[in-house]
Design a protein that fits this description.
2 copies of one chain form a homodimer.
Chain A lengths: L11 H4 L3 H10 L1 E5 L4 E3 L7 E5 L3 E6 L7 E6 L7 H4 L8 E6 L1 E7 H10 L1 H27 L2 H16 L3 E3 L2 H8 L3 H13 L3 E4 L2 E4 L2 H7 L3 H13 L1
Antiparallel strand pairs in A: 1-7, 2-6, 3-7, 4-5, 4-6, 8-10, 9-10
Chain B binds a DNA duplex through helix 8.
DNA sequence: GCCTCTATGTTCGGTAACGCCCAGACGGAG
DNA sequence: CTCCGTCTGGGCGTTACCGAACATAGAGGC
């Protein structure tokens, strides 16, 4: 057997740029390691830099009175953190927490503004991503209101799997409960149900997706809606 | 007594523009009458025009499987409908329904694109508004998840009052139930409670806010959070 | 081996919603 | 005045959660 190959991680947004522009972006920032559970930003904090995850995963969490907060966005290598800057605002509206360790391209705010000012295609692309984020946010709002925990958990697992490009990843039920805005017990029940159906396997924070098709069936339509929204804009 | 005066309605976004630019915008479009319950757009529909409400009220509703949809945004004269166009996307992500009749400035999509291409201040302003909308969407997502009907109803009434610039307006419990994503009976209970507290009065669709302070106290903090988000960006 | 810490599983009573259905009450059209 | 459509109020059983507490079980350090 050959040793485990490690593909060069990329960011799908940056991949949309012409080669020379992509190089420019890579040169404009530096590759940093996102450390699990690091809080990159809190609401109201001034944005010092933006992140284009190559492998890492960033959760966007909105604080809410009477609760521990709620995840309203999940950013992997299909997106970026720092939309407000592209919209002319330099503060974060949400808490940004590293949910999966890995590399990310980090670009200073000032430099990023220079780049989007200089490069129309880049700016256009970020704007379109902002629209996708807007759509997904609206979808999530409805999902959180109407859909049962099990379906939302299935959706979350699929979204995460898409972003880590791996059937297995690490996340405890405690953490899932925080993301979904439910009690841990609720996650235990839902996850147990999904496991009984043979869709996933988990043990002490190690989750493996066994049956992607089945998981899609168990998830609410919001998963598909999210993907469609992305695909409609980026093809 | 003097006859009821009718102030010239304005749009707070357009008011932020220099006088000559504001005139230009008014000339670029035409003033139309938003008709109650009209569906301006459905999800996926191509945007033919944008609206800057002067008096009218537009509800943004996201379709959601297993439910009748959920309101995720409310646009009065403090905002505009058509954010996607400013972000380089020409389809609506939501259903846009006229929730309060009144005048609005309507500008064709092509013309609007010309204007924001020509006028940096305008484009910047719309982008910032998009950010505010993003923040409010995140807040709403959490609010819908965690807060009880009564508090959400109070928030909705305050938001609407702000946008119609009037203590009284017309909205049935049936409609409120749709907006809040609950049963009509749930609205009956919550509205009855607010009325018992002397905060509002209602009868057959005619709602009057009697005690704004009290209503703020009854609402969740999301109302204040929304206003703060707007104020932080537009001062 | 043993201990400890973290993660998971279970149980209890409580509650804020749900869907469904029916009853009353007002107001405008005829 | 009567009729009818719209709007509001209430009851009933059900459900998916909640908060709190307690019980097991695997993984790693020593």
């Amino acid at each position: 057997m050959s040793p485990p190959q490690r593909a060069i991680a990329t960011n799908r947004l940056l991949d949309l740029l012409p080669a020379h522009e992509r190089k420019r972006m890579l040169a404009a920032g530096e590759t940093v390691d996102l450390v699990f559970a690091d809080v990159l930003y809190t609401p109201g904090e001034t944005l010092r830099e933006v992140y284009f995850p190559l492998e890492g995963l960033i959760s966007l969490i909105v604080p809410i009175e009477g609760a521990n907060g709620l995840e309203v966005g999940l950013i992997g290598n299909e997106g970026m953190f720092g939309i407000p800057l592209a919209l002319g605002v330099d503060v974060s509206a949400v808490r940004a927490v590293v949910q999966g360790a890995g590399l990310a391209l980090c670009i200073g705010a000032a430099q990023f503004l220079v780049e989007i000012g200089r490069n129309k295609v880049l700016h256009q692309m970020i704007d379109r991503y902002a629209f996708v984020h807007l759509s997904q946010l609206a979808q999530t709002a409805g999902c959180n209101r109407f859909h049962v925990v099990e379906a939302r958990l299935a959706r979350w697992l699929l979204m995460t799997q898409d972003r880590v490009h791996n059937d297995a990843f690490h996340v405890t039920q405690e953490f899932l409960a925080l993301m979904l805005g439910v009690r841990r017990v609720g996650v235990t029940r839902a996850a147990g149900s999904l496991q009984n159906l043979g869709l996933i396997h988990y043990s002490r924070g190690n989750i493996a997706v066994l049956d992607r098709r089945g998981l899609k069936a168990a998830a609410c339509g919001c998963y598909k809606a999210d993907r469609d929204a992305y695909a409609r804009v980026f093809g």
